[in-house]
From TrEMBL:
Protein known as: FAD/NAD(P)-binding domain-containing protein
Family: Belongs to the FAD-binding monooxygenase family.
GO molecular function: flavin adenine dinucleotide binding; N,N-dimethylaniline monooxygenase activity; NADP binding
Signal peptide limits: none
Source domain of life: Eukaryota
Pfam families: FMO-like
InterPro entries to which the protein is assigned, alphabetical: FAD-bind_Monooxygenase_sf (IPR051209), FAD/NAD-bd_sf (IPR036188), Flavin_mOase-like (IPR020946)
Source organism (scientific name): Melanomma pulvis-pyrius CBS 109.77
Keywords: FAD, Flavoprotein, Oxidoreductase
Length: 622
């Protein structure tokens, strides 16, 4: 018996009992008469037709095919966490680019770097202590994620140069049919679950001014920087004063002959995020932090506590005590900007906005204000009328500025909809969530899913990150939530699950009542509000980062609508035949197969060392 595999034993056990019982008669021994089938009282069954029990142990779970679209930070973290947290998962990640990294692969413009300290912009379980500087450059960030992919051997899940061009839910098959295009072929894959990790700054948007197509010079979006372009000695227009525009301008100013910087709206320029500059903080502590794990933990905690405690800065003072933070920020940042601009009060007046700091994401712009004061920079606030073959003309009496190159830092598609159709029950989420669609904005269930779209999960979707906190922690938490959904579907014979319309409407109502309390609802345009001044906020979570942690900790299964694989649609068919795989193994007498029927009996439990809060809570008990 011990030489047989555990699976063989289980398979034998599960072989359906044949209609006529076969009795093996040993030797000539007398065979006792077989009892006739017991007679149950006639009213024992009240449900007709009776449930046909499924012949499997309860924990003989289904393998799920899962497709993740996108190989940026969200896709990479999925490749680590999903196979770890979802038994039997069959995972593939499609990435349209030639390499992993998402925005850190595509954004190679001069000056690109993170605007939160790199020590807090990395996976929580893969700390790199050797960041060369507090705000690491894009290439260093990409190298970090490449290292993670290699270390965890994630290439087995990732298909590069593979663009998803359509996903359609087949109600008949209970699967997503996903069209994937690569250089040499188009193929259709299918999946039980589809997870989008396509990012919300991954589709650069060029402006649509008249004449732009006729412009003869070098024209690029900063997210699509041409590495062969040499800006030295050139006359360059930089359009846009968002985070990218502020980063790309200082290095260009240093080498270009002249820069025309087109900024159609005002913006706050804080010293790195929130007005704090963590450069000193990091440089003062990092050497010591590298000396021991305890010191490093202390450093990370001190750093991230500051990032998680910024939530107060989005509140109106009259609504909440502590909201004074925002008022103070206006004063502090104005003073800071004034100092950095020196005697250029003309620039200060042109840049400092009426709206409150944090109405849009605060932009650090190291070196930006200083660059604006340089002689070779013109700050142009007049709207652009049109492009010509040689330059740009503004609306002020047709002033025309000739340039050799135009760099558009004009943002991205911030609709939080994918660039490809996602269709279920005749509705295309790609258009439904965009202006003009129904409902015309990204109407998610807790940022994670959409009603009417079965087995669809979204990473870094609308309302997905707190206005404070750290991105990677938030993504890891979301993936963990997704893992719970996948485990539930796999374990409980769920064919499809989608959040209910009612739950989604209630979340929408919460957002609509929450955001007007905050400065984010003021009259500024940003990716928080889809670029619509004073518009609905869907860019951030309606609460703090810690608040979001609590929400994601436990799934509210009652908010979901389900269908089941069981032909009778019975939600408890997954209980199987009453056995667990361990019971089967134990009953076949296989003592040496490593089955622990009592995993809770641990030395720690006997000597008082067990943490009772998590005792009996593990889903992964062997
Ligand atoms: C220049 C820049 C700097 C930033 N700096 C910071 C920062 O300092 N701190 C911070 O918190 N956030 C920052 N962000 C925000 C950043 O978007 C997130 O921090 C994070 O990197 C997003 O990761 P992601 O994997 O979710 O998305 P992305 O990095 O956007 O990755 C999405 C991936 O999906 C792929 N994809 C999209 N559509 C398809 C398709 N149809 N088929 C196949 N693949 C597809 C894309 O090619 C891309 O690789 C920055 C963004 C930019 C653009
Ligand atoms: N680490 C970093 O420092 C960093 C760097 C880049 C990006 N990011 C992240 O990515 C987000 C997006 O940054 P982003 O700079 O790419 O985009 P953005 O913040 O949305 O800024 C886009 C800019 O382009 C302007 N613009 C758009 N269309 C225009 C048009 N037709 N004519 C003139 N100007 C136009 C906008 O002006 P209006 O304001 O008038 O609309 C805005 O100034 C940031 O908020 C941040 O989260 C971070």
């Amino acid at each position: 018996m011990s030489s047989r595999s555990r699976l063989e034993a289980i398979r034998d056990h599960l072989t359906p009992v044949s209609a006529t019982p076969s009795i093996i008669v040993e030797d000539e021994a007398e065979v006792p008469p077989v009892d006739p089938a017991p007679q149950f009282p006639s009213n024992i069954r009240t449900v007709f037709p009776p449930l046909e029990l499924e012949e499997h142990p309860i924990d003989d779970i289904r393998s799920l095919r899962v497709i993740v679209v996108g190989g940026g930070i969200s896709g990479i973290l999925s490749a680590i966490l999903l196979p770890t947290k979802v038994p039997k998962i069959n995972l593939v990640i499609y990435e349209r680019e030639s390499d992993i990294g998402g925005v850190w692969h595509t954004n190679i413009y001069p000056g690109v770097r993170c605007d939160v300290p790199a020590h807090a912009y990395q996976s929580t379980f893969e700390p790199q202590t050797t960041w060369s500087t507090a705000y690491a450059a894009g290439a260093e960030i990409k190298a970090y994620w490449k290292g993670i992919v290699e270390k965890h051997q994630l290439n087995k899940y990732i298909r590069l140069n593979s663009r998803v061009t359509k996903a359609e839910w087949s109600e008949e098959k209970g699967k997503w049919l996903v069209r994937v295009e690569s250089a040499d072929r188009v193929h259709e894959d299918n999946a039980d679950f589809l997870i989008t990790a396509t990012g919300h700054f991954s589709e650069p948007r060029l402006p649509e001014y008249p004449g732009i197509k006729e412009y003869d010079g070098h024209l690029r979006h900063s997210s699509n920087w041409d590495p062969k372009f040499d800006p030295s000695g050139k006359r360059i227009a930089v359009i846009g004063n968002g985070a990218s525009g502020l980063q790309v301008l200082p290095p260009l100013q240093k080498v270009a002959a002249h820069i025309d910087h087109y900024a159609r709206n005002k913006t706050w320029v804080a010293a790195p995020i929130g007005g704090e500059n963590f450069e000193h903080f990091v440089s003062e502590r990092i050497e010591k932090a590298r000396t021991s794990p305890e010191e490093y933990l202390k450093f990370r905690k001190e750093l991230e506590i500051q990032l998680f405690s910024r939530f107060g800065s989005i509140w109106y003072a009259y609504i909440r005590r502590g909201g004074e933070k925002n008022k103070t920020a206006r004063k502090t940042i104005t003073k800071l900007m004034s100092e950095r601009l020196g005697n250029r009060t003309d620039l200060l007046n042109a840049i400092v906005p009426d709206f409150a700091p944090n109405c849009r994401r605060l932009t650090p712009g190291p070196g930006y204000l200083e660059a604006l004061t340089a002689e070779n920079v013109d700050y142009v606030t007049c709207p652009i009328e049109r492009f010509t073959r040689t330059g740009i003309q503004t609306t002020d009496e047709g002033i025309h500025r000739e340039v050799d190159a135009v760099i558009c830092s004009t943002g991205h598609d911030i609709s939080f909809s994918t660039a490809f159709p996602i269709v279920a029950h005749g509705i295309n989420l790609q258009t439904a969530w965009r202006p003009g669609g129904n409902p015309g904005f990204p109407d998610s269930y807790l940022s994670l899913a959409a009603p009417g779209f079965p087995n669809l999960l979204i990473l870094l979707g609308p309302n997905s990150t707190g206005p404070a906190g750290t991105l990677c922690h938030s993504v890891e938490n979301t993936i963990t939530y997704c893992a719970r959904v996948l485990r539930k579907a796999s374990r409980e014979g769920i064919r499809s699950m989608a959040p209910s319309v009612a739950a989604t409407r209630d979340f929408r109502a919460y957002c609509e009542s929450f955001f007007p309390r905050t400065v984010m609802s003021e009259y500024c345009s940003s990716w928080y509000n889809g670029g619509i001044k004073g518009g609905r906020i869907h860019g951030t979570w309606p609460g703090s980062a810690s608040h979001l942690n609590l929400v994601r900790r436990n799934a509210r299964w009652e908010d979901w609508d389900y269908t089941y694989l069981n032909p009778q649609g019975n939600r408890f068919a997954w209980l199987g035949n009453g056995w667990t795989q361990k019971d089967v193994a134990a009953s076949t007498g296989e003592a040496d197969i490593g089955v622990d029927l009592t995993p809770w009996l641990q030395a720690e439990a006997f000597n008082g060392g067990v943490d009772l809060r998590e005792y009996h809570e593990h889903w992964w008990d062997p």
